[in-house]
Structures are given as C-alpha cells and as structure tokens.
Amino acid sequence: MNKNCLFGVTVAVAAALGLSACAGGGTSGGDGTLTVAAPTNEKGALDAVIAKFKEQNPGVEVNYTTSAVDQYQTTTRTQLSSGTAPDLFFVWGGSGGPLSTHVIAKAGYLEDLSSQAWADNFPAGIKPVTQFEGKTYSAAVTYSGIGAIYNMTALQEAGLTPPTTWTELLQFCSDARAKGKPAFALAAQTNWVTQLIPYSLTPTLVYGPDPSFPEKMEQGQTSFAESKWVDALNKNVEMQKAGCFQDNPLGTDYNASVSLVAKGNTLGIVQTNSAIDAVMEQAPAGTRLNMLPLPATDNAAETRMTGSMSAAYGVNARAKNKDLAIKFVDFLESSEGMNLYTSANKSLPAVPNDSFEADASLSTLQEYTKGGKTDPFMDVMWPNARVQQTLMQVIQDMLSGKTDAVTGLTQMDSAYKQG
Predict the structure, then answer these.
(1) Is the pLDDT assigned to residue 31 strictly greater than 80?
(2) Is the pLDDT confidence value at 23 over 80?
(3) CATH 3.40.190.10 fits 19-141+311-351, yes or no
(4) What is the distance between the alpha carbons of residues 124 and 16, in angstroms, rounded to a whole number?
(5) Cβ distance 294 to 149 under 8 Å?
(6) Rg for the chain, CA atoms, rounded
(7) 301-327 average pLDDT score
(8) Contact by Cβ (8 Å): 315, 113
(9) Which candidate, 96, 129, 132, places its Cα nearest to that of 111?
(10) Which of 159, 183, 260, 262 qualifies as a FRET site for 227, CA 20 to 30 Å off?
(11) What phi-psi label fits residue 120: left (phi over 0), alpha (psi between -120 and 50 degrees) or beta?
C-alpha cells in the first residue's frame, strides 16, 4: 500500500470532498488481491486492520479506494450495476440510503453472510439493520453516536462549562459570543451535516417519549409534521438566531468547521464521534475533547443521545475474490479486528467485548448506551433515501429563511409515503 496517498478529513456517516486511491486503486480482485472501497473517513481504521490482516496472511495484498460519501455512494452503485464493484465495500444499515443494507441486498448485490459464526452476535438494536428478510448481509463493525463535541481546553480558557438543559444551551451560546468565540461550528454548506442537530434533538423530543414512533410512521398513524419533529427543526433555527453558530454557517464546509473547533475558534461542534479524530489531527498538543448530549428540554433527566451501528461492510455478491473478502470480514468481526478498527476511528465496537477500552471522550456515549438512553440514527429505517435528502434540503432552506418547519416536514412526509 502506498503510504504517500493523500486523504481528505471526513466523518463517519459522511465525508468531505475528494477522491483518493491507494495501491493502484484497482477494483478487480484475483490472485490473492482483495479490493475494498469505503468513505474517506474510514482510512485510518482500514490502515490498521489491513496491516494486521496482511501480517496474519502473508502473500495477500489489499487494494482500496476512498472517496467523499456522496461520490462514494454514486460510484459504488454504478460499479455494482456494471459488475465492476470491489470485492468488499462499506455499507450503511437499514434502508435509508442508496447503499443501505436493505436496499442493495434486495437488489441482489450483497452476499448472504448468515452462515458466518459471528452473524448472530449483534445486539438487538443492531441486528435488524444488518439483515434483509431474515438473512444477514452486512458485517457491523462500529457503534457511533451524534452529540456536541466540546473543546474542553477552549471551554476552560473561556471559563465556561457544557450546558445540560435547553435554557442553559441558549445562555451558553450567549456567553460564548461574549467571549468572542461562537459556541458551535456548523458546516451547513456541506449537505449531510445539516441533519446532525435535528438527529441530536429528536431522541429527547420524539423517540424517547414515544419509542413506537417509527412503527406509527410505518402504519400511517402519525407524521413528521404532526410530531415533535416540528420542535426539533424550530430549535435548530432558534440556535442560529441565538448566535450559537459562527458567522455564515451556510458558507462553511465540513473541513473548515473542523478547523474552527480544533483551533479553539469555536467551543464545540455537533457531529458524529468520528469527527473527534479529525479535530485532534489539527488541534494543538494537549487539547482535550468530550462528546456530550445536546439538551433539548429543561429537564436534564430526559436527555437522550443518538447511537447506532456506523461502519459496516458487505461482500459483493459478484466478488472476484469472494473467499478472501469473507475471510477479511471474519477478521473484522473478531474482537482483535473490531477493536483495532474501532480504536482507530474513535468509536465503540458493534459487539461489546471486555478487552476494549473506550477513548475518554466517548465515556458519556458509552454510559448512555449501557443505560438504554440512546436511539438509532433516525434514517436507518426510513423507507427510501428521499426522506433524508429532503430533510437536508429543508434544514438548509430553514437556515436561509426560505421555509418553515411544518412546510418542510410535510415535504418529508410526502417523500416517506413514496415507499
């Protein structure tokens, strides 16, 4: 593998711009060469597990490509359709996106992995999003969350502490502005980032109070526009009006937002936990980070977090090196492989094990997970990718004053009903 390849900095459910390839970037396997593709933010984790896999399997080569999420999804779907996809590739759980497990398993693109020894090991909250029609098609590796990642070093210098209620959050934004540092960096120019604040608020506002909400949606007994999703979207705009974000968030991309919090120019960022590694790459030595829930009400005991399967891999049903791809997946699902991958991208293992020590910045996410105070990423069980795409556009439109919550959520309801 060419260690001089350059990779963009990205996050778990998404990535920044740019395409990168290593070891020739080939997508056709054969003769002891495994081909793999993933979003750019998986680079560090792949480096770690590939090095160990090759060490344990002398003579095996692994070529992989990485690209920004939007580009990765488009390219991989095209390759799957044309029969040129790599042996192994990154997938999402559930059914909410173009490379979600349910979607591509239904299309016949994924190898059935149900016979593998690890297939029944996933926790109850993860198993459904790795399966389609009762069969396992994706190998979950990591468990991730969404929350407010605070630069604790910058907070200490500003004399501030993280808020635990909604009223405290708005005051925190005001106090941070008074110190000359906005509370949160928001990369609203990068489409996928816009969903992260609603995803942080709805566990407390929607899914915690009504765990049956997804089933009610599926059965047509409720809708986004008739639910507390309205409050979540309005609170997102309220944060903007309260000065919680840096100037011109609609003109800020993901990479720029990471730099803002890394340098202490903002005190935090609402992101997936994989952004922790991205921030630390740019932060001064000794910087401390902490990922905490974003409060949505004035009762701290009600606060919940979003937590769900994040990184997962599927084997191409038409893989040229299918046996080697399955062997690599088996390594990923071992405690050794899963811990290597998980440690590299600052997440938690999809299958908990006693030998894993979580990064200190993830202690609260781990605590909330063990305490049953998390809800899955909202889109994983939505019936199609259009719902999520609509949400991202609605948030951008609301931040620019072009629409309101009810109108936007009605558009989401329309997309949801398309099945």
Answers:
(1) no
(2) no
(3) yes
(4) 32
(5) no
(6) 21
(7) 96
(8) yes
(9) 132
(10) 183
(11) alpha
